[in-house]
Amino acid sequence: MDSLLLSQYLIAGLVIGIIYALMAIGITFIYSIMKMINWSMGEFYMMGSYLQYFLVVYILGPHLWFVGIPISMAVIFFVGLYIQRFLLKPMFVGEMERKDEYATVITIAMMVFFRNLAVVLAGPNQFAPPDYASPTYIGPLPVSGNRFVALVGTLLILGLFYLVVRNTWVGRALRGSAQNRVGIQTAGVNVLRVDQIAFGIGVSLAAAAGALLAPIFLVWPENGAVATMKGFEIIVIGGLGSIPGSLVAGLLLGLVESMGSVLISPSFKDVYGFGLVLFLLAIRPTGLFGERQRVA
Amino acid sequence: MSLLSIQDISCGYFEGIDILHDVSMDVGEGSFTGIIGPNGAGKSTLLKTIFGFLTYRDGEILFIDEKIRDLSPFQIKKLGISYIPQGINNFPHMTVRENLLLGAWTFKGDKDRMRRGLERVYDIFPVISSKRNHKAEFLSGGEAKILSIAKEMISSPRLLLVDEPSAGLAPKIVSYVYEFLRRSHEGGTTILLVDQNINQAIENSEYLYMLEMGSVSLEGSSQMFKEKLKEIIRDSLIGA
Lengths: 296, 240
Description:
The complex is a heterodimer. By secondary structure, chain A is mainly α. Chain A contains eleven helices and two strands. A six-stranded mixed β-sheet of chain B has the order 6-7-8-3-9-10, with helices on both faces. A four-stranded antiparallel β-sheet of chain B has the order 2-1-4-5, with helices on one face. In chain B, 43% of the residues are buried.
C-alpha cells in the first residue's frame, strides 16, 4: 500500500471525525444539562446548511462564506432559544408525568416538521454552494480546500466553545447545572434560563457543522439524517454526557470509516462505524468515557 | 418584627395530596428558630416551599411583608434567603473557588463585594481555604458539607434555611457546623433550622415548632421544650 495514499486517508478521516464530533458535542452538551436527547439535532444541522447556502448565494457572495458561518450559528442559536422556550420548557415546570418521554415526542415531531418545512419552502432538490477554497496541501499531502476549511472552522468553534464554558459566568452556570441541578438553584441561578442557553448553544454547534459541510455534503431536506446518526454513534462510543468522550470518539469514528474504506472497500463506509459501535457495546457498554450510573 | 411569616399554608408534591396542612409560623428578625418532628412530618417540605422549589396551594408566605408566592428559587435567593439542603450540595467537578464564585452569582457584577465575600468565607472556614484550587470531588465528606454551606453563605443572607445539618457527618464536623450556625446567628443572620437531632435543635434555638403529620403540634420557647423534652421524645417514639 502506498504510504502517501494511506496518510491521505488518515487525514481525511481525522478531518471528518472532528466535524462529526461537533455534532456529537452538541447532542451531549444538551443532554448533560437538560437530561434530554434532542432527536431533531440533524434538522438544526440542515437549517444551518440552508441558511449558509442562502447567505452565500443570495446575500454575501461566494467570497464572504466565512461571514455566513457565524451568522448561521447566531440565527440558529436564537431559533433554539425560542424553540426551547415554547416547546421544551414546559417539561420542567408544572406536573409533567415523564419528562424524558415528553422531550422525545416533541423533538421527533420537530424532526418531521422541519424536514417537511424545508421541502415546502425550497423543494426537494439538492443545492451546492460554491467551494470555500481551492485544493491545498498539508505538508506533501493534497487535501480538498472545503475539508481543510471545515477542519480549521471546527477547531476554531470548539476552541471558542471551550473558552466560553471554561472561563465565563455563563459557562460556569452551564457546568454547574450539569453537575448539580439543585445546587445551581440554591446558588441563585435561573436554571430554566440556563437550559434555554444550553439548548441554543447545542443546536448552534449543529448549525455550524451544517454550514461548514455544505459544499461537501450539499444542502437538501434530509442532509441532517446522516449527521445525526453519526452523532449518536459517537455518543455510544464516547459515553453519553462526556465532551472529551465525544471528541475522541468522533476522531476514532472518522479514522475507522476512512481506514475501512481504503483497506477494505469504500462501499461499506457506514458499516465500519456500526462495527465499532457493536464492538464497544460488547466490551464497554458505558462508552469510552461514560460513567456507570446507579439505578435505584 | 417578623422577617418571615408563614400563614396557613397547605401544599404537596401532587395535586390532591397535601403534605402540609394549614401550617403557620413566625420567624422574627435576628431569631434562631427550630423545627423538629418525626420522619415524614413535612419539615423538609416546608423549607423547600419557602425557597420556591414547591408552590403552595393555599395560604401565604411573607418575607419582609412581600408575598413570595410564584417566585422561583433564584428570585427568592435575590431577596436575601439562602437554603442549605440536606447532605452535600456542591459542584463536584469544579474547584472550591469556582463553587464559591457560583454562590456569588446573584451579585456577580459587584467585584468588590465578591472579593469581600470570598475572603470572609475563607476566614470562617480555613478548612476549605487551604484547598481552594482542589476539585470538590476530592474533598472529604465533612469538607464537602462545609463547602456546601460556605457556597450559600457567601451572599450574606438575611435568612438562612438549614435542613438537617448533622445528617451523615462525623461528630467532630457536626459540632463544628453547629458552632458555625451559632456564630452566624450572633453575627445577625436569622436562622430557621430543621433538625431531627432534637437535643441540638433545642440547645441552639430560641423558639421551636414541632411538626407532626404536616401540622404544627406544639410551639414554644426552647425553655419550655427543654422541660417537656422527655414527654416529647416518648410521644414521638410511641407515635401518639
